[in-house]
Design goal:
By secondary structure, the chain is mainly α. It has a single domain (2-402), classed as Sodium/glucose cotransporter (Up-down Bundle), CATH 1.20.1730.10. The protein has 22 helices and no strands. The chain has helices at residues 2-24, 30-35, 42-51, 56-69, 75-101, 106-113, 117-150, 156-171, 176-204, 210-220, 238-252, 256-262, 268-277, 284-297, 310-318, 321-355, 364-388, 393-404, 408-416, 422-437, 441-448, 454-472. The radius of gyration is 22 Å and the shape is globular. It is a multi-pass membrane protein. Keywords: Membrane, Transmembrane, Transmembrane helix, Transport. Belongs to the sodium:solute symporter (SSF) (TC 2.A.21) family.
């Protein structure tokens, strides 16, 4: 029954998504495939944007983080609200620049605004790298669900390959519109699942209410509900929470797929309305964290101590097969929808900002084919990363935010400082990545800024470098196409 229900949810959604995508598409070109022809209204933009928030990172990752660490899982409550607040200001400006200059990708924005093809290529490669890391999250999670439904005898490689293949099928033909339809289905199902689990979870662990679940967790594991949480030696202090939440907020809309998603809206007003209501989603984390605490009270011991498997293991052990099947199918969609959008964005960037500058005579259909084929390679890279790593989904996600945060100063300065130029932004990116990735960087930051998120510190070094280089540059070299 578990497999049958999971397949029904996934295959039914995939079929509906492909049908919807084909019916709504008005042309076969990269613009239609990658950003839906710039015609997404409030409802479809809401579901698609929320779909990039309500992912396996949010549900499986945060519940597992609550189980393992306790209070540090509150990161989810703060980062979503901060991101939406910043998005209200930033996203309409990105949309306006894209509409005015016919931009499709984040790398388009950098190349156009700073009048530098080299900067566009560098941003493209950095964006693709961050996207592949983020796809890894979805591959890991989907692999877990595949093994849950098909049995532990399925090899991790087979599970990861199945996960990647389904993601590719999702957007290979119909593009972003397919993902938008599936995002709506996924969000509705996930809300139903979370409400259903939370309505019954207290009784499963001998508590009287969700608040009692929190109280019992605190009684059984003193300090779990306050910082530094269940594992003080992990260094997840309140300083870590504040700096990590700020790093996520500053980097969220810099993630290439969310940056590109801004171009799909039909108006700036659609984006602003979405940003106003988006923080509602952060309220769901109260329930997701409660599920992690309930799993801890129930004595759940996930396979190999894998924190990502905490919630699936709890559901399998304490709920009937039909609930497990519905949960498995919905969890698959949690990975499929964002994962497919990530691959679509990576393919679009590769085709438009890496291949097209080398082959400027390439027509639209050829470019679309290149973008689609590139997705296969990026999915393969994500599978390789997923098989070689054992981090929690939250840790992988924070790594992706730290990596993409190196592009944030270039975006913010484009809207805030007319003197920002390509040389300064490029220098900032190079110095920022050095501050983040050099072998001695972690030890240096830990010694001098204990508890701080290293990605935020590297971003600050990046921004300071941009300011220094641009301040020393002649005014004539500043960007001449500042978007409004």
């Amino acid at each position: 029954m578990i497999l049958a229900l999971a397949l029904a949810v996934v295959l039914g959604t995939v079929a509906g998504a492909l049908l919807y995508g084909r019916q709504q598409a008005r042309a076969v070109n990269v613009t239609e495939w990658a950003i839906g022809g710039r015609r997404f209204g409030m409802l479809i933009f809401w579901f698609l944007n929320a779909g990039e928030v309500y992912t396996t990172f949010a549900v499986l990752g945060i519940s597992g983080y609550a189980w393992a660490y306790g209070a540090p899982a509150y990161l989810a409550l703060t980062s979503v609200s901060l991101s939406a607040t910043l998005g209200y200001w930033l996203m309409p400006r990105i949309w306006a620049a894209g509409r005015a200059r016919n931009l499709l990708t984040q790398a388009d924005f950098f190349a156009d605004h700073y009048q530098s093809r080299l900067l566009g290529v560098v941003v493209a490669m950095a964006g693709i790298a961050a996207l592949v890391i983020y796809v890894q999250i979805q591959i890991v999670a989907l692999g877990l669900i595949v093994r849950l439904t098909l049995g532990p005898q399925i090899a991790p490689l087979a599970a990861a390959l199945i996960a990647a293949a389904v993601m590719l099928a999702f957007v290979f033909t119909a593009g972003l519109r397919s993902a938008a339809f599936a995002a709506g289905v996924k969000d509705v199902l996930m809300v139903v699942i979370v409400i259903g689990l939370c309505a019954t979870v207290a009784a499963k662990v001998g508590a009287t209410s969700l608040l009692d679940v929190y109280a019992q967790a605190e009684a059984a594991f003193p300090g779990i509900g306050s910082f530094p949480g269940r594992q003080p030696d992990a260094g997840l202090t309140n300083v870590w929470l504040m700096t990590s939440a700020l790093n996520v907020a500053l980097g969220n809309w810099i993630l290439p797929h969310l940056f590109q998603l801004c171009f799909s809206a039909d108006s700036a007003e659609t984006i602003r309305r979405n940003a106003i209501w988006q923080p509602i989603y952060s309220l769901s984390y109260f329930f997701i964290i409660a599920l992690g605490f309930a799993a801890l009270l129930a004595g759940v011991a996930p396979p190999d101590g894998d924190t990502n498997a905490v919630l699936p293991s709890f559901v399998v052990a304490h709920y009937p097969a039909w609930v497990t099947g519905l949960f498995a199918g919905t969890a698959c969609l949690l990975a499929l929808v964002p994962g497919s959008v990530l691959l679509l964005t990576a393919g679009t960037i590769f085709g438009r900002n890496v291949v097209l500058p080398l082959r400027p005579a390439m027509d639209g259909r050829a470019l679309l084919l290149v973008s689609r084929v590139a997705m296969i390679g990026f999915a393969g890279a994500a599978v390789w990363l997923a098989l070689g790593g054992s981090k929690s989904l939250v840790e992988i996600g924070l790594s992706a935010y730290a990596a993409i945060g190196m592009l944030a100063p270039g975006v913010f300065f484009a809207f805030l400082w007319p003197r920002a130029n390509a040389a300064g932004v490029l220098a900032g990116i190079v110095v920022g990545y050095a501050a983040l990735l050099l072998p001695t960087a972690d030890a240096f930051w830990s010694a001098h800024f204990p508890g701080w998120e290293h990605g935020l510190l590297a971003m600050a070094v990046n921004a300071a470098t941009v300011v220094l280089v641009c301040a020393l540059s002649p005014n004539a070299s500043a960007a001449t196409s500042r978007p409004r």
